[in-house]
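User: Before I run my own analysis I want an independent prediction to cross-check against. Here's the chain; please return only the structure tokens and, at the end, one sentence I can use as a sanity check.
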Amino acid sequence: MNGLTSRIRIPDSEATSSEDIFDTGLSVLFPDSIRNLHGDPGSDIIYTSPEYGDLKLALADPESREEGLLFAHYLWNSSLLLAEFISHGCAMGGRSDDSDFEVTGQTVLELGAGTGLAGIISALAGAKEVVISDYPSPSILEAIEDNVRNNVPESMRSSVTVKGHEWGSLTDDFSKANAGHFTRILCADCLWMDGEHQALVQSMLYFLSPCDDARIWVIAGFHTGRAKVAAFFDVAYSAGLAADKIWERDTEGHERDWGMERSGAAEEDVEQRKKWLVVAILRRVTLSR
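Assistant: Structure tokens:
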């Protein structure tokens, strides 16, 4: 079974239909078939964290077609990988230093959070403050709030806030109060909407602390094509961000160099593309005086 996706299961009380049973066994029946998203709208799913045990996550039930098109009602492999990195404080491979994904004592903002898994893990791992944000939709935010209540101990809950935030909209009270406030910004599987790249980068730069060690952690899959992912980095670099490190990793832990372009049969095969994710550690460019 695939290392990353094997940590996901449907609660026993919900895995009653033949379809659920079939989906749960896909990775055994067809080891080359990779699920890059997990769960169903309005259902629960369990993620087994190597460090923190079983976390039960509620998935949003979109109230409109427009909300459904945000795809915030699934748990994505990018979130799983980011959660694992944060749990360990590093990327558990040859491309990362021991503290590259350390959150202890940091102020953390998760953008486009979906279930809020990465933000929840950040709180459990010792972050000083965590804000978990997504599009300001009641169904999405209520699901995240449920997940915080169910998975973050009450003694730690005061350090975690759930906020609605539309990328690039920076005139509301929350934005005004938190400009340059966060030393760690998390972004998992938010790059597939290429028309939103500019707004996403705008929010990243606005909220990122000016301190030298402030970082943005970006992980994204290639299921919608490499071109959309690469386009984000073009926008980010043009706006004043730079990559400390950037590489690719698959769901089994194999790694390779990042490529803005790739060719060949594997790149054209959707199943092969779904195995791979890009991992990037971004920082603000410091202009020389």
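Sanity check: The chain is about 30% helix and 25% strand.
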